[in-house]
UniProtKB/TrEMBL annotation:
Keyword check for Signal: no
Entry keyword Magnesium: no
Coiled-coil ranges (or none): none
Family, similarity comment: Belongs to the dus family.
Enzyme class: oxidoreductase
Source organism per UniProt: Pseudorhizobium tarimense
Name of the protein this chain belongs to: tRNA-dihydrouridine synthase
Key words, A-Z: Flavoprotein, FMN, NADP, Oxidoreductase, RNA-binding, tRNA processing, tRNA-binding
């Protein structure tokens, strides 16, 4: 989700900090796949690179590579619940093996001179809520900030995030704490801060189809409807430029779907399918504008 085109828009519209997509540590060290594209900075301000892995050696190697290529902060992913990640004993699967998790944290912290942070869930399941203890040990190992998603791995994204449970981590550490999970509005952001005792809020799915929304929650002016359509088209064109036509079309489909869900929830399945199937950028833009409305009146302004 948070590839460079998305981060540039979120940052431009007022997000306080943006984080790269999860980068597999061994893939980066071996220069495989799109790992280097995910690492790219392009001038955004603190460059926070998120790494995932299960082997301390490869995490340390990847952290060094990231730092040498402009990373200002290294973030360790111990929160991803996806089966393809946890099946490889990475992401939130590490919470089932705290000793391995701590060795991985220790190796990463010692490998670089930039701050290292940690993102995780409350635990693997309701019978193993160990985020407070892992956070405490991570702080002792040199982690400088921790982010908690208020669900266990086994919950995936079902039910509601438990914002009060995040407070147990607040009581366990003195380092900055970021709370995450089900933040869709300014009211949600205020409430999660109160209930969790956190210092800041992370927004993920709440920004799908509206990358400007993080800045809006932070107090920046919301873009007009015309500007929102303009941003959607601008984002689409940026993805094609960043990835190239073939890969760009593939990556863009999910974002186009999110824009349609947010801005035109009543659009027909037929219209959506026509947009997804098209391999001609001009046709996609024409169809998007037809569905969402003209962006020609979009004012040329940006949030600070």
């Amino acid at each position: 989700m948070t590839d460079l085109p998305f981060r540039e828009i979120a940052w431009k519209w007022g997000a306080g900090l943006v984080v790269t997509e999860m980068i597999a540590s061994r893939e980066l060290a071996m220069s495989r796949g799109e790992s280097w594209a995910r690492l790219k900075r392009a001038g955004l301000g603190p460059h926070m690179v998120q790494l995932a892995g299960r082997e301390p050696h490869w995490m340390a190697e990847a952290a060094r590579i990231a730092a040498d290529n402009g990373a200002d902060i290294i973030d360790i992913n111990m929160g991803c619940p996806a089966k393809k990640v946890t099946g490889g004993y990475s992401g939130s699967a590490l919470m089932r093996d705290p000793d391995l998790a701590l060795s991985l944290i220790d190796a990463t912290v010692k490998a670089v001179g930039v701050p290292v942070t940690l993102k995780m869930r409350l635990g693997w399941d309701e019978n193993s809520i160990n985020a407070p203890e892992i956070a405490r040990q991570a702080e002792e190992a040199g982690i400088q900030l921790v982010t908690i998603h208020g669900r266990t791995r086994m919950q995936f994204y079902e039910g509601r995030a438990d914002w009060e449970a995040i407070r147990q981590v607040r009581e366990a550490v003195a380092i900055p704490l970021i709370a995450n999970g089900d933040v869709q509005s300014e009211r949600d952001a205020q409430e999660i801060l109160i209930r969790s005792g956190a210092d800041a809020v992370m927004i993920g799915r709440g920004a799908q189809g509206r990358p400007w929304h993080i800045g809006t929650i932070a107090g920046h002016p919301a873009p007009s409807r015309g500007m929102q359509v303009h941003i959607a088209i601008e984002h689409y064109e940026a993805m094609l430029s960043f990835y190239g036509l073939e890969a760009g079309l593939r990556h863009a489909r999910k974002h186009l779907g999110w824009y349609l869900d947010r801005l035109a929830p009543g659009v027909s399945g037929e219209a959506k399918a026509a947009i997804y199937r098209s391999v001609e950028p001009e046709d996609v833009i024409r169809l998007m504008v037809e569905v969402l409305g003209s962006a020609s009146d979009a004012p040329e302004r940006r949030a600070a």
